[in-house]
Amino acid sequence: MTNTNFTVEPVPNTSFGARLTGLNLNDLDDQTFSQLYACWLEFGLLIFPTQHLTNEQQVDFARRFGELEFPLAPISNIRKDGSVRPEDDDAVKVLKGNMGWHADSTYMPVQAKGAVFTAHIVPPSGGETGWADMRAAYDCLDADMKEKLEGLSAYHSLHYSQMKLGHDSKKDKGSYSGYGFHDQDPPLRPLVKTHPETGKKSLLIGRHAYGIPGLSESESETLLDELMVHACQAPRIYHHSWTPGDAVIWDNRCLLHQACPWDLAVPRLMFHARIAGDEISEFAANA
Questions:
Q1: Of these four, 30, 146, 237, 270, which has the most CB atoms within 10 Å of its CB?
Q2: pLDDT of 130-148, one tens digit each?
């Protein structure tokens, strides 16, 4: 990017991501926001150090990118009373699940457009967040694999991905049944996604994906595992070590992300504002 009202530093040694400084996310004029949005489409991930957004400011910033799927949710192992949840707590099981590579809301009828994430309490070690560039992952596939993937789709389910970790999320079992643990049929999404704004192709995979129609269960699992190994490696990944006050926004239509492990006896508090996807471009085939 050139001629911006702020400084853009691409993340070194990766295919995506940039660190933006010299701007206040709580005070952006329309021209500056337009430049920021163009950066977002180019880099996929924007990192804003030491913004220290309030919850209200975070929601207001996220809304500039579109309607919200939900305004704000804590991503945390801390209860409302300030105590730390035990590791067998169902909410912690979801946190552990989020340590697998995934895109947000692929298991819902409409996949999310993106998300704004902020750091409030971070552990002294661990607890990073990683992202993986599915545009670059698609681009470096060989021609035979690209041809193989055309026309293939996979189902996406949070029930499926949590059950693989031993987390029984069925409502009638009394387990955690929060956002995403719905009873509707799982959405079917193509393995190759075309970005609605840039036109670039990317892989749409992740921990929620399974059951490719036309393949056996073992063939489907093998192919999805191979794609994940191919996609989520250098130089297509970046892991961010958080400092309280940091904010990021990522494009959920072309990146996967994951949480990294930390000592779960230590508190960690992040806030997540999820930007709703367009109901035309992000609607699942069978939703």
A1: 237
A2: 999 999 999 999 999 999 9
Angle at CA of residue 141, ends 138 and 142, nearest 5°: 145
Encoded tokens for 97: 């699940």
Residue 80 CA: distances (Å) to CA of 56, 178, 189, 264, 269: 19, 16, 36, 16, 11
Do 252 and 40 form a contact (C-beta atoms < 8 A)?
no
Phi and psi angles of residue 7, each rounded to the nearest 5 degrees, phi first: -95, 135
Q: What does the pLDDT look like over 209-252, one tens digit per residue?
A: 999 999 999 999 999 999 999 999 999 999 999 999 999 999 99
pTM for the complete prediction? 0.93
Domain that residue 43 falls in:
7-76+84-275
Judge whether 282 lies within some domain.
Answer: no
Residue type, 28: L
**How many residues are given for the chain?**
287
Residue 70 inside a domain? The answer is: yes
